[in-house]
Design goal:
115 residues, mainly alpha, 7 helices, 73% helix, 0% strand
């Protein structure tokens, strides 16, 4: 799988990311760091323990990283969750399946990119 194919697979923005990072090698360097980020697990754990502040921080981190790396679908879904949590509400159950779908798709894409 090429880097461009990866971005198609995850519904991302290859052109914008390439314009920012300049080369596929640089993109790969940052994309390959994404799976090690613990923000998704922190988000799930924080929601489960009703810690809205930590959940917000985790969702906001996912949103920022996804935006910077051009993971458009993940960015948009995490933005919705972030805004709900920003208001102090933990009522994100309706939005989490979409965030989870695109998080898992992104991880799967990274695995395919590296295989």
């Amino acid at each position: 799988m090429t880097v461009e194919n990866f971005y198609e697979y995850i519904r991302g923005d290859y052109v914008g990311t390439k314009a920012r990072l300049m080369t596929d090698e640089r993109i790969l360097r940052f994309v390959n760091k994404f799976p090690a980020d613990g923000s998704y697990r922190l988000l799930l754990d924080s929601i489960a323990s009703s810690n809205v502040e930590e959940a917000f921080r985790a969702a906001h981190t996912i949103k920022g990283v996804a935006q910077n790396l051009g993971f458009t679908a993940l960015y948009l879904s995490s933005q919705e969750v972030t805004e709900i949590l920003r208001s102090g509400s933990l009522d994100v159950a309706a939005k989490m399946p979409e965030l989870t779908k695109y998080y898992e798709l992104t991880i799967d894409g990274i695995n395919k990119l590296n295989s």
